[in-house]
Amino acid sequence: MPLDQARTELSTTEEARRQIEICNACRYCEGYCSVFPAITLQRSFSDGDITQLANLCHNCRGCYYACQYTDPHEFQINLPKALAEARTESWERFSWPGVFSGLFQKSGVALAAALIVGFAALFWAGQALRPESGEGFYAFLSHSVMIGIFTPAFLLPLLAIALGLRAYWREVGGAPVRLAYLVRAFREAARLKDLSGGVAGGCNFEKEDRYTNVRRWHHQAVMYGFLLCFASTGSATILHYVFDMPAPYGLFSLPKLLGIPGGVLLTLGGLGMAVLKTRGEKNLGASALWGGEMAFVLLLSFTGASGLALYAATGTALVGWVLPVHLGAVLAFFLTAPYTKMVHGFFRLAALVRNAQQT
């Protein structure tokens, strides 16, 4: 059977395994990201090994441009694409409930827009239930309504992600976790070490001969922006329930000092990532899911931007219109999180923990 024909009949996992075995024999890229040192630790690769390596990959693409076996060579190595497809397939396989698997990836832009508009309309209609008195946001939507909606919308997706991570850990053969493994994994995640591709000048995601840390910086802006926004919400919750200090909060309060820079980083980082995605080669990733990934990035950025717009509108009648839109974006983000690329952060952290165990 011709090599090209045989390759087309391989499953996603089998194709990734074929390429990884060639990489393991070559070892030219051994000094690149964490994937290649992990490959050299073994001679054969189970399905769980492929899943682990796929989630360890950050798609920096340096290995592709350095490889001598890419097309038109008969081996046709395209490891970033093979691992991206195996990685996405694993997320869909581990998603719970499975009925939503792949839904966002296939029609992300339309689904995100529909959810934001739909939820915003519901929040706008819910303003009819607002109390006769209230300050800040609570003058437009009662605190009890917000809590009643967002508590399950936050906890249920976390449960779905936790179940997916448990299935992932079983498949990759994860051992009991020690503190040292967690510390190493969180340290590497905080620096996004593997987005440098093992090269001091960064990765070449955008262009073959251009090494840059721009993609790494945008990812860090989104990651830390999201964490700051989450910390802002957490601090406001503590102030409300522990210290009996309900919103609204002043400019120099902890929720605002965390939330404003968080929103700026989330918005700008998300827009930067969207621009980079338009410049990168689609064929070096899971090209069929490009639209879903772009929709997720734009949803992140819109959530941050609408939060900043809401702050700017504070004290005006515009709050009644901006608040439903922002809450709709946040609710859409929470509910779709287990089925969008948002899960890559959780699975890559798990992959880093597993890699720390193995190395």
TrEMBL record:
Keyword field contains Methyltransferase: no
Keywords from the named record: Membrane, Transmembrane, Transmembrane helix
Residue intervals passing through the bilayer: 103-125, 145-169, 221-243, 258-276, 288-312, 318-339
InterPro entries reported in the protein's UniProt record: Citrate_utilization_prot_B, NarG-like_sf
Domain of life: Bacteria
NCBIfam families given in the database record: CitB (TIGR02484)
Protein name, as recorded: Tricarballylate utilization 4Fe-4S protein TcuB
Gene: tcuB
